[in-house]
Amino acid sequence: MRLAIFSDDLTGASGVGSMIKTGRTITVNYENLPKIDLDRFDNVSINLNLRDANPQTTRKLMRRVLSVFREKKIALRIDSALRGNIAVMIKTIIAVRCTLITDTIPEYGRYTENETTFFDGEGKNILELLNIQNGDIRKQNLIISDSFTGDDLDALAENCLKMDLVPIDPGPMIARYAIKLGKINETREIR
């Protein structure tokens, strides 16, 4: 397994899994992970079923999966409307890893600019949602990137690979990241 993708619901886990056009990808509910031979797959998109969970349950399960997958590349698929417990999920990840967040889906007209996600003229500030202030030490592990187009998402995915950042988005950047990660591994296997 090259990449573990965490999602707070099955729809999101399935959606991002279906965006990855290369390699072997499986979508699985968290409780079924022990039944799966993860080495048979390149990418595992995991439904953590945390959309409506309380913050304590979310934090506990996120810590558990981060521990289990500590030696693996990971990504976090977030709801594009920023629903659910994404603040807890992201804060748990940035406590142990550096991340890059964008909330862009070019096909829907959703984009990210100045740490704010925009859709239909409405904006939501991502830092405010996370309740992270400028002096907060956790901000050191958090990059919120502007993006508008598929090319922007390609460049961000490449940066995540080069800088060993955890990609966090609704799926399009993660899919590009998984594809690029697969190409790197294929090149290594050929040599």
Beta percentage is 15-25%
Instruction: Give the strand tally.
Output: 10
Order of helices and strands: EHEEHEHEEEEHEHEH
CATH architecture: 3-Layer(aba) Sandwich
- Please state the structural category: alpha/beta
Radius of gyration: 16 Å
CATH class: Alpha Beta
**Largest sheet composition:** 7 strands, parallel
Helix content: 25-40%
CATH topology group: Rossmann fold
Task: Give the low-confidence spans.
Answer: 187-191
CATH H level, superfamily name: Putative sugar-binding, N-terminal domain
Number of domains: 1
The CA-CA distance between the termini, in Å, is 19 Å
- Shape from CA axes? globular
Strand order of the largest sheet: 2-3-1-4-10-5-9
Q: Supply the number of helical segments.
A: 6
Mean pLDDT: 92
